[in-house]
Specification:
The complex is a heterodimer of chains A (about 280) and B (about 280).
Chain A (H helix, E strand, L loop, with lengths): L1 H41 L11 H13 L2 H33 L1 H16 L6 H8 L3 H25 L3 H8 L5 H38 L5 H10 L3 H29 L9 H6 L1
Chain B lengths: L5 E2 L1 H10 L4 E13 L5 E13 L3 E5 L6 H8 L7 E6 L2 E2 L7 E4 L11 H5 L1 H5 L4 H14 L15 H13 L5 E5 L7 H18 L2 E6 L2 H7 L2 E6 L4 E7 L14 H27 L1
Parallel strand pairs in B: 4-9, 4-10, 7-8, 8-9
Antiparallel strand pairs in B: 1-11, 2-3, 2-5, 5-6, 10-11
Helix pairs in contact in B: 5-6, 8-9
Classes of the chains: A mainly alpha (about 280), B alpha/beta (about 280).
């Protein structure tokens, strides 16, 4: 009796403090870190070429957007990344579906897929530039190649995890394979597919930037290379900031679509919430 | 009060043939063997013969692992590779038939569909008229006591409610037979009792032939016109028991001495069959 009251009291005392810490601690750490960084730069403790002051980065960030240069290049990068992402989703879901629909097709494809999966796709970048040129095409292909696998693997895993009991309900009615797929297997696989898609969207951005590093006239990756060549580190940092914001926005959009489509899922795992605190 | 008829296997066939109602389900010589991973063959069923008449409520009871579910899966057309014949509505069938609506141990509702969309699912599979299915689904949901829950998702329902939805779904395409495999096994005892009363009412109102598979002796006696008692491995029907308790039955029927006597009798039969099993294994 006493013990439980003591526990309850401690829980009560702990919870407001916890709430304060949980809400303010990340902000506090962030402010302290930026403050330390800013003062280190101001006091010339670090070389601004290595680590420019946060105020310089912010100024650069604002400048990049007010002159319109960031938006112009962001549009190119975003178009390439989203095209690659859309292609990766379409191809990944299609091939994943066919290979679990036809066992023979899946088996025939398996060695190739394992070999390609084991290859670091970024190593394909020079070859893809040779094949598809310096334009948009090579970036889209590289983004697709990198973003394809998470979608494909998510699709195969999801389709394999089809609930046997739900399948029995339809089989007892004499459902065709197409009906089983459309009415049970595919909708049931969506949580797995979305887990793959969530990884793929950032991979597509990664593929695009690497493609732009290999050779391009436009895009944020090109802009980073250019700024780096000019030893304009503050600009590099501010572009990184744009890329981070883009990645977050993409994640957020996928999360929105996921919640719309998977309204029936009890508790969708949220990667950002668990790491973001 | 009627008396409990004790029937041997041959007599049971003779009696059901003498029933003026033609059998809706008839099995002859059903045998099924499985190959284990160790390469041994296990006899799951051996010579299973039974008839179920039109409008009759028949239960199959037996210990766990005696092959009850194998019988159900053969009837539902979900497994192949058996010998013997299954006759549904006067025709030998292999594979699924629309004459049967199945309720499984788990409700197996699609969590992404509303209750209403789950109940109309068989209509979609069998390509029935959409409007008619919609109207019938609403009627059935009212029949199983889920009126007003049409728009809910399965995740928002209790276990008992989900099983009610599964019963409504099984009835949508108006099958002649309702096949139930331990439908309330996952529910708590109180809910289970209530669901049994509901099942008796639904079966009577819908006018269906019901074949129930259960390991609860009391449940089988409470619900059935006849109880088929199955022995364990290899599964075979060792006894057919006619239940003459008057209908409609309330839960108070449990207090009826005949109810208790019948339950006891079936328990003895099952005990004998399992102890006979033990002797066989000891002799080996």
């Amino acid at each position: 009796m006493n013990d439980t009251r003591g526990l309850a009291l401690r829980a009560y005392l702990r919870s407001p403090l916890d709430a304060v810490l949980r809400g303010w601690l990340p902000i506090l750490v962030f402010v302290l870190l930026i403050g330390a960084w800013e003062s280190a730069a101001r006091l010339s403790l670090v070389d601004p070429m290595m680590l420019p002051a946060p105020s310089d980065i912010t100024a650069n960030f604002i400048d990049g957007f007010s002159t319109g240069i960031y938006l112009q290049h962001l549009e190119v990068t975003l178009f390439q990344a989203l095209s690659g992402f859309a292609l990766a989703c379409a191809v990944g879901i299609c091939i994943g579906s066919i290979s679990s629909f036809s066992e023979r097709f899946g088996r025939a494809l398996q060695p190739i897929l394992i070999a390609v999966e084991a290859t670091p796709k970024i190593a394909l970048a020079p070859l893809i530039i040779v094949w598809f040129g310096y334009g948009v095409g090579s970036k889209v292909v590289l983004a697709t190649a990198i973003a394809f696998f998470p979608v494909f693997i998510g699709t195969v895993a999801g389709l394999r995890a089809a609930d046997p009991g739900r399948l029995d309900v339809l089989r007892a009615l004499g459902a065709s394979r197409g009906q089983l797929f459309r009415l049970v297997t595919l909708p049931g696989a969506l949580p797995h597919i979305f887990a793959g898609i969530n990884v793929a969207v950032v991979f597509a951005l990664l593929g695009t930037i690497v493609g732009e590093f290999m050779g391009s006239k436009e895009g944020l990756g090109t802009l980073i290379l250019y700024a780096n060549g000019n030893l304009d580190t503050a600009r590099v940092f501010s572009i990184l900031l744009v890329l981070a914001a883009t990645g977050l926005a993409l994640h957020w959009s996928i999360g929105r679509i996921r919640r719309r489509l998977l309204f029936w899922e009890a508790s969708p795992p949220n990667v950002l919430a668990t790491t973001g605190g | 009060m009627g008396k409990i008829d004790r029937l041997t296997l041959d007599e049971s066939v003779a009696v059901s043939e003498s029933i003026t109602r033609a059998p809706v389900i008839a099995t002859r010589g059903l045998c099924k063997t499985y190959a284990t991973s160790a390469g041994e063959t296990v006899n799951a069923l051996s010579q299973v013969n039974f008839d179920v008449g039109q409008g009759e409520f028949v239960s199959l009871v037996g210990p766990s692992g005696c092959g009850k579910t194998t019988v159900m899966r053969i009837l539902a057309g979900l497994i192949d590779g058996y010998t013997g014949s299954v006759n549904i509505g006067g025709r030998v069938v292999h594979g699924p038939t629309p004459h049967i609506g199945v309720v499984f141990q788990d409700a197996n509702l699609m969590p992404w569909r509303t209750v209403l969309a789950n109940v109309t699912l068989p209509g979609q599979v069998l390509r029935l008229d959409k409007k008619a299915c919609h109207a019938r689904a609403l009627e059935l949901l009212a029949l199983v006591g889920l009126g007003g829950f049409e728009k809910k998702l399965p995740g928002e329902l209790s276990g008992g409610m989900r099983q009610r939805a599964a019963i409504a779904r099984a009835l949508l395409h108006d099958p002649r037979i309702l096949l139930l495999d331990e439908p309330f096994g996952a529910l708590d005892a109180m809910t289970r009792d209530n669901m049994n009363v509901e099942l008796a009412r639904i079966a009577a109102e819908a006018g269906k032939t019901v074949f129930l598979i259960t390991h609860s002796i009391a449940e089988s006696v409470f619900l059935s016109d006849r109880v088929l008692v199955m022995s364990s491995r290899p599964g075979r029907i060792i006894e057919t028991i006619k239940i003459d308790l008057p209908r409609p039955r309330s839960l108070d029927v449990v207090a009826d001495p005949m109810f208790a006597a019948t339950v006891l009798r079936i328990r003895r039969l099952l005990e004998q069959s399992t102890s006979a099993d033990l002797h066989v294994t000891l002799a080996h």
